[in-house]
Amino acid sequence: MARAHGKAGTRLLPNIVDDVATEEPDRILYEYPSSSDLRGPWTKISARQYANSVNRAARWIEDTLGGRGQGFPRLGYSGPPDLRYYILVVAAVKAGYVMLYNSLRNSAEGDAAVIEAAGCKTWLVPSRGSHIHRVVELGRVALELVDLPDLDFFVDATPVPHYPYTKTWEEARRDPVWVLHTSGSTGHPKPVVRYLDSIAFAEANTLLRPVDGRPLLLHDIWGTRVFSGFPCFHAAGLNNGTLWPLVHGGTIIFGPALAMVTADVVVEVLQTARPAAMYVPPSLLEDIAKDDKSLALLDSLDAVGYAGGPLNHDTGVRITQHTVLRQGIGTTETGWLPAVETDPEDWHYTHVHPDTGNQFQDRGNNLYELVAVRSPALEKWQPIFSTFPELDTYPFRDLFSPHPTKPGLYKYEGRIDNIIVLSNGEKVQPQETELIIATHPLVSDAIVVGQGRFQVALLLQPEEKALDAVQKDEVAYIDRIWPFVEKANALAPAHAQIHREFVVVGTPSKPFVKTGKGTVRRGPTVELYKNELDAVYAQTDAETGARAGYGAHGLLPAIDFSSAESLRRTLLNVLLSLSEAQSIGDQDDLFTVLGLDSLLVLALQRHIVRGLPRLPDGRPAINVPASVIYRNPTLAQLHHSLWAAYEAQASGQGSRSDAESRGADTEHDSTAASLLQRYPRDMPHLDDGPKPSGAAAVDCKGPRSETGYVVVLTGSTGGLGSYVLNELAQSTAVREIWCLNRAADGGASRQHELQAQRGAPPEFASKKNIHFHHATLARPRLGLPTDIYAYLRDNVTHVVHTQWQVDFNLSVASFEPHIQGVRNLIDLCAAAPIHNKRSRPRLIFTSSVGVANKFDTAGGAATVPEASITDLSVAGQGYGESKLVAELLLTAAAEKCGIPVTICRVGQISGPLKKANKKGIWNEKEWFPSIIRFSAHAKIVPASLGRNEVVDWIPVDYLAEILLELAEITGAKPASESPKVGDRPTIVHAVHPRPVRWSDALLPTVRARFASKLGRVDVVSLQTWVATLTKAATDGTGDKDEATLFALRLVQFLSHLSDEGKARPLFSTAESEKRSTTLRNLALTGADAMQTWLEQWGL
């Protein structure tokens, strides 16, 4: 157990050594094998002998270097992993020097960079185990090389005179104690200086209180006989090897001095030295867990700790079947970050001690960055500000995700630096995939790459025992490890999955570049294999994919255009191979049944093009853009479209037919009409409804109480929905809020993150009786438990429906589950009883201005009226059509069922502007932020926004307020009587009633701000701007700026904007303004708003 010294937090390291030697002279601090044969005797070093060794070394330094050091000259050293590291580090401080320890795994160039940056002029050279001479041969640094005596010289038990150290705390606290260096994962390593006060602060950890009865995390490791598998030059090795014996009462056990620590070495140490605990890098645990006999040896240990990187989850679970597993987290700059013991099953979670000032700050997507925030009262537990005294906050750049049910626990998810951004803007966290694949017995290391590419790739380093097999048959080697890749793919989102043609196997002549702790240095390793990776990507042409495609089950079958039946058969086989489905019907929707997404659509499109016969000039016989698949979302439609286009070309009816023109254009109206015909069937007519059941197993205040509204909100974790929840939670008129979301926990965990991120007070959830439930709106009773559904039926007063998939590529048929969800919400409202002349629940639907995409060609009206639209062709495309079908379905509900319905057609939603929502941000992946970010990157701004030149946007936080006013939840009072049969729904428009133009109201602000921050910025035509973006998309380089990647996702949409001849229709707001004070008084969109959004994006 940790021992708290009376002066903990203010003791200087040399004094700690002398104190321990005086107070506990015979306690054993270190043990190491006396020879390479671990079965022989082991040498034990007591506190007295260690202090004596330090005194001898200090005197040797002074005598050898001609006196005490002035200004703490750097003494460099790298050598065998023995006790000299721990002796020299204290001796150098006593003699006025400071040790610089370089990793033995550095390249010569990396060593030279650290030595040069640290200002080191003298290097201590052991008789063996050093490679400093290769650094000298580079000629970059001038070093005086000094021969260092062997370990036996320093640990000689013959007493030597005490070497005095007389500095006080205030005199010496800012003296350097050692210099290590960063791992250099993305470039050359850089020196990191630690100071004596930071080591004293590490001792202060013994003063930290238990939290809820739980001790500090490593309490069962650091005070025991513990084998340390970390290199002595590594921060964990040096910190633990120095402090655990001196401060915590432990004994550090070394492995053989001239052997690299491998799983075999660990096994031999466990068998011979019999330590009580072990603290090692995760790579060693991965190797040990691959062998059952080695794993069984862990039964003898009280605990096993690891640090320096993540551990594969399955490996961790196997280890916990044998012993307690502890995950330590620390950095070179600060040492160990104090954490609290967790439950055994939560070994992979960290509970940061609350008295350290370390916080988890929201970075979006359920990820939190660990950040140290300076607090003078916590100085003793914030050694990071000893290393960086000029800072008040220090972001560690490590990302974590919260435990789903246990507050305060966070799981490590990887470095911010390691997140891969694909060319379509999707982000990939590679850690879990890499860990799973690296657990294969034939894989040493695995790296996922793909920054700025359209697809991730896998870079493998085989285990040494697999090298011969790889050389003989690389394909067979990939076959053997592929089940582990499939296992990783099953846990990864589609855009992060590894496709078989994107695998590169490393060679023995180019081993992966490693850090001192044995982890891969990602940047240098990727650079090492740049040519091989470029070749893999080059073989898959960006437009047509010249390489054979792979799906979920391996190589995709070829597409056969020899006959209509062969095309249908091979299309079916390809679709099944791309998905996990066992079968698919001709009329099944590819997106809802097979789960096709944008990445799989791209793969399918490329594979179709690969199978096409070629024209004499080498081009595919027909043009098949990805939109063909979106517009023909069933096997039957896609087959018909492709064959009709191909047959037309083959018969000479066109030189190169476009499959899109032969597709399902004429079927869109009929599909929408079919949906509109089916879903109003059996809709109940107005009656008194069922009596309230009163049997709901939910704590409530009785059916349809007059004391407050009971509101159902769908999509509360969405961009608009989260702000609607804010407004509902703050409304005194609302008694209960029921949030229905697709997430397994009903969105509860995600909601708390979003509310804090978007400016809600942290106590928002306690203001109201807020419930979260998993719901599938397309299922009967919304997929809710019977008692919950019954309670909502009997008590709900308002349903606010914001949940809808936003994908402008999909056809209307793919939105059928959403339309089914609208019908099911209608059934809920229609079944609700009527109390005290109150109407049935009001159903508020957030529709879209997209229902009138083609209104300007459908009758010539000046503005779209606040009235029903019955012409399905006005919507023009799938998303808008689906919203229009839903509108007409709700119109029928109002007329037949007497349900009060409010349809709110929402226009462009902009970023938040209220001061209370200062933490909110306009999503940078949307079209307008993408334009602005790329404009800053390219230093050009479009003079016009084309079809979107008119700015009638509403900020999302104001829109939420407007929506509730229009829904009669806030503002206007509800009707006193139920609607009558035949009543029409209330249709309102949520667009700015006083629109402005981009070029007049916003462009000047953007141009002025960019000019002041970036220098010259040119205003160009929209066509020129889009052309510049398109060029950036096809420049052939993989490493693209993130602003470019966001914009590239929308390049087709942005190209359509440049069609300036087709302006968007304008929408009337006369009736809407009467119903909403907020809408009526909405401020003009101008310079202030634009400045706020620019600040949100950090521009």
Can you tell me about this structure?
By secondary structure, the protein is α/β, with parallel strands linked by helices. The longest helix has 20 residues, at 878-897. Strands 2-1-10-9-11-12-13 form a 7-stranded mixed beta sheet, sandwiched between helices. The protein has a 7-stranded parallel beta sheet with strand order 30-29-28-31-32-34-39, with helices on both faces. The radius of gyration is 34 Å and the shape is elongated. 36% of the residues lie in helices and 16% in strands. It has 5 domains: 13-402, ANL, N-terminal domain (Rossmann fold), CATH 3.40.50.12780; 419-538, GMP Synthetase, Chain A, domain 3 (2-Layer Sandwich); 550-663, Non-ribosomal Peptide Synthetase Peptidyl Carrier Protein, Chain A (Orthogonal Bundle); 709-906 and 954-990, NAD(P)-binding Rossmann-like Domain (Rossmann fold, 3-Layer(aba) Sandwich); 937-946 and 997-1096, no CATH class.
CA(first)-CA(last) distance? 51 Å
Percent strand equals 15-25%
* Counted beta strands: 42
CATH-derived topology of the largest domain: Rossmann fold
CATH class placement of the largest domain: Alpha Beta
What profile does the largest beta sheet have? Answer: 7 strands, mixed
Going across the biggest sheet, name each strand in turn: 2-1-10-9-11-12-13
- Overall 3D shape: elongated
Q: What is the H level of CATH, i.e. the homologous superfamily of the largest domain?
A: ANL, N-terminal domain
Structural class of the secondary structure composition? alpha/beta
Tally of discrete structural domains: 5
CATH architecture verdict of the largest domain: 3-Layer(aba) Sandwich
Number of helices: 39
Q: Uncertain spans, ≥5 residues at pLDDT below 50?
A: 541-548, 550-554, 663-669, 688-705
Radius of gyration: 34 Å
Mean pLDDT: 83
Helix fraction by DSSP (H/I, runs of at least 4): 25-40%
